[in-house]
Amino acid sequence: MSGFAPFMRALSAVVWKDLRAEWRSRELLSAMLVFALLVILIFNFALELESTVRANVTAGVLWVTFTFAGQLGLNRSMAVEKDRGCLDGLLLAPVDRAAIYLGKTLANWVFMLLVAVIVLPIYSVLYNTNLFIPGLLLTILLGSEGYVAVGTLLSSMAVQARTRDILLPILLFPVAIPVVVAAVKATGGYLQGLDITEIQPWLNLLLTYDVVFTAVAFMVFDSVVEE
Amino acid sequence: MNAKPKLLTVLDVVAGAMFVAAVALVFFYAPLERVMGLVQKVFYFHVASAWIGMLAFAVAAFYGVLYLVKKDERYDRVELAAVEIGIVFALITIVTGSIWARPIWNAWWTWDPRLTTATVMELVYFAYLMLRSGIEEPERRARFGAVYAIIGFLSVPLTFFSIRLFRTIHPVVIGSNDPGAEGAFDMTQKMTQTFMFSLLTFTVGFVTLLWHRVRLGVLSDKVEQLKLKLQS
Amino acid sequence: MEGPANTLSYFIAGYGVIFGVLAFYIGSLIVRWRNLKQDEAMLTELEKKEQTE
After folding, report:
1. Residues A171/B128, Cβ–Cβ less than 8 Å
2. Which of A49, A175, B12, C31 has the fewest CB atoms within 10 Å, i.e. the most exposed one?
3. d(Cα B2, Cα A207) in Å, to the nearest integer?
4. CA dist., res. C7 & res. B104, Å (int)
5. Residue-wise pLDDT tens digits, A147-197
6. What is the pLDDT of residue B62?
7. Distance of CA A97 to CAs A84, A90, A174, A225, B65, Å?
């Protein structure tokens, strides 16, 4: 099976499958959301987010929230596939495995963005900060893409290991640090209203890692699910 | 496992002799730095260890790619061996760096990007070992190890990017010196000679250690096979 | 301009760590090698016994 059209069909089938299953149960998204809000709440107590401190730490708090909630979603979305035997079914299907990888990545990306879409206004209201800056939204788009690109690959490895529940964060966080650091720096730059020339290097770094992680994961995914 | 190859014995002797010579150079030949004093001499082996750490992880990623293409367990052994040695040298780099930093930066540790990324790198490879220990089936363990060695190595270049992007206090030895860096110094000719020799010594030492570690892997696999055979 | 700072103890600590860690690693290689060799000898012994029985 090769060619562009069947690839796209398989890709969209995987994405739709995930999104529709989630639309019915809503268990993944609701868990991620509640978790994200709890993280913000904990930060509120831990850091005493007063208005003077807030400006500097908002970027960090946001990204810790996104990465933790994202990790939860990544772990769950693969574990469900594995437990219900869906992963084996998917792999038996005569489609390009890379399409399965991209499909899962896209679905995870959508979940992470949905969490961001809900968390951002809540955070804005709670802490009276305007987070709706176009550049900041772009940063979230790019940052979460790099994160789920490498996260989807690693979670499909982690679910096949004996220690799977604790393994994903250990595998993912150190590798995702370049993405998270660049995203935090760019977000912070936008929040402080820095000049675009100061933010540009971080956006470039983000973009580089997005491309590199997606491309490499795309190429090696086959050897992760091969049985 | 056959007898030890002659070349390896030769390498052992050469690496040992070079190591002694490098230590002698550092201790007696290299001049005392004007401001920092003796602690500056940590620099020679600190940078050499950092270089070996990088080299080892690069070798691991390279053999990871080879394994994924060829699916030959020999490549997997080299990859694991390189990661293990890389962890050892990265640890030496971090600890000696910290010891050097104490008198110069007046702190054991600063959250300087260089130090932070070096530590992240160490964590990546600890995660690599944990991943491997979480999988029983050897073939799958090798595949996942290879994938993670490749992905992990991609986050290493940030170590280099970071020195240029952040304003750092870590001195940049190769290339231009940032005037903001504390603990930077100009190398005299004798220093350069000692430095180059240390790099060479560590590289030879790395090859020797890698070879020994690969042989250990071969033996370990053989024992594993024998065990399986006896069980059945 | 004063002379160089007295940093002898840090120098000793630095090289102590380098020698220590390297010695520890090489030692661990030797120990692991010996243990495996013992296992190997034992297992081949067992295998021979099984074959003769």
Report:
1. no
2. C31
3. 50
4. 10
5. 999 999 999 999 888 887 789 999 999 999 888 888 998 998 888 888 888
6. 95
7. 19, 9, 26, 8, 19
Looking at the partner chain, which of B38, B88, B223 has a beta carbon nearest the beta carbon of C7?
B38
Residue of chain C with shortest Cα separation from B45: C18
pLDDT in tens, B157-182: 665 565 555 555 566 555 444 444 55
| pLDDT, position A160 | 87
For residue B33, the cross-strand partners are: B37
Whether the ipTM is more than 0.90: the answer is no
Q: CA nearest A202: which of A181, A175, A225?
A: A181
Backbone angles phi and psi of B33, in degrees to 5: -70, 145
pLDDT at B185: 66
Torsions phi, psi of C38, nearest 5? -60, -45
- For residues A152 and B147, is the Cβ–Cβ distance under 8 A? no
Contact list in B for residue C40 (CB cut-off 8 A) is 1, 219, 222-223, 226
Is the CB of residue B196 less than 8 Å away from at least one CB of chain A? Answer: no
pLDDT of amino acid A49? 65
Structure tokens at B148: 């993670």
Q: With CA atoms as reference, report the closest residue to B92 among B48, B144, B41, B140.
A: B48
CB atoms within 10 A of CB B91: 17
